[in-house]
Amino acid sequence: MDEKNKVSKELKEKLFLKRKNGYTRISSEDEKASFAFADDYKAFLDTAKTEREAVEEALRLLKAKGFTEYKKGMKLKAGDKVYRNNRGKAVLMAVIGTAPIEEGVRLCAAHIDSPRLDLKQNPLYEDNELALFKTHYYGGIKKYQWTTIPMALHGVIIKADGSKVSVSIGEDENDPVFCVTDLLPHLATEQMTRTATKLIKGEDLNLLIGSIPFREDETSEAVKLNILNLLFEKYGITEADFISSELEAVPAFKARDIGFDRSLIGGYGHDDRCCSYPALRATLDCDAPVHTAVTVLTDKEETGSDGNTGLCSSYLEYFIHDLAESLGAKGRDVLSASECLSADVNAAFDPTYPEVNERNNCAYINKGVCITKYTGARGKSGTSDASAEFAGRIRRLMDSREVIWQTGELGKVDAGGGGTVAAYIANLDVDTIDMGVPVLSMHAPFEVISKLDLYMAYKAFAAFIAD
Ligand code: MN
Ligand code: MN
Fold this sequence. Notes:
Elements: H1 2-15, H2 28-47, H3 51-64, E1 68-69, E2 81-86, E3 90-95, E4 106-111, E5 116-127, E6 130-138, E7 151-158, E8 164-169, E9 179-180, H4 196-199, E10 207-210, H5 222-235, E11 245-251, E12 256-258, E13 264-267, H6 270-284, E14 293-298, H7 315-326, H8 331-336, E15 339-343, E16 346-347, E17 369-372, E18 376-377, H9 388-400, E19 405-407, E20 417-418, H10 422-426, E21 431-436, E22 438-439, E23 447-450, H11 451-466
Parallel strand pairs: 1-2, 4-14, 4-15, 15-21, 16-22, 17-19
Antiparallel strand pairs: 2-3, 3-14, 5-6, 5-11, 6-10, 7-8, 7-11, 9-10, 12-13, 13-23, 17-21, 18-20
This protein binds manganese (II) ion (2 copies).
């Protein structure tokens, strides 16, 4: 009996797919490094809550590492480090490799926009002597999660004379914050009978911003007038200037460790900063790669990647073409030989909601960075579906660099679904696969990830760039 068990144990060891917790496999150096990396990451989360702020912070880090602004037509050689800022809302960066660029680039693509409440273009109103901002939510959210939490306001306003004002209120401890109110349970009898999609309606997401009336005015809208007067004194803006503004209400709290063991991070915007930060760091840390490393931190993923700062536009393609030209090659030859990691998050298995996942094919906290061959919904629609050959290549690469990884898809077949930028890049004739960090409570104001998985994303992107 014992001998029989021994044989089956050995065979299982040899033949079964291993899906063990990463903490049973991680080296002590990597474990230590993962906690240090998490501290840097939390600082990034707190500094870069919007796509514009993520670009600013990325540019600061890139310049500190010697990256210079790419100019079309400039001559490039191996080891050169360049970036291109796309309208302050997306950023591209490249480290020129030693191999001819016709051999393709190693492309990492992550997004820096996150779900939030955008102000409407005529947002300010007064109702029963309270001042409020109308909002239009950005990305897919469960609206009820965005009420009764402290919110900060970030963004830019272009004034009538064309000058730009930057706004960031609610991050400093001494700043005021804003919030969306909700009904008290005592009077919510009707509200609580609604389905969750209508529990809080889009037009209910109004941000409370003040209540003191302008003192010399006993006519109507004195509270609104007082707010406008304060805004004029602070920013020199009038109500019409909101028309040319992008103001985003985001959770005002900072990223925090979660758990007695501090193994997890709670914060706003893990999707997709937990991939964009590791991709950025891997690029910053890379010196002389064989293949040219290109990383793009893009905008507009959460609304479908349209617009000139989203990856359905041509801005990435133009950058590759321009780099190719600078190195005497053809852009299309470079693209056809290139490989891409579409660095985006996946859903982590939640023991409280096990019914939406199929346990053999979903991502788990602490099992490492997740490789996803295809995304999409209902019969794989909207996916690029990486080839078995490319999945095999990436798998070999991860194993050779001691990256702890797992595989998983987004939920049960027919449970729903979602996409990433992978398909848009694959459509450029680039071998592309999704890889990212599993997230709990995705798209909530306070999302959760694991430090081990985050660090493994960094190791994965670094391995890919260096290969
Ligand atoms: Mn995402
Ligand atoms: Mn998302």
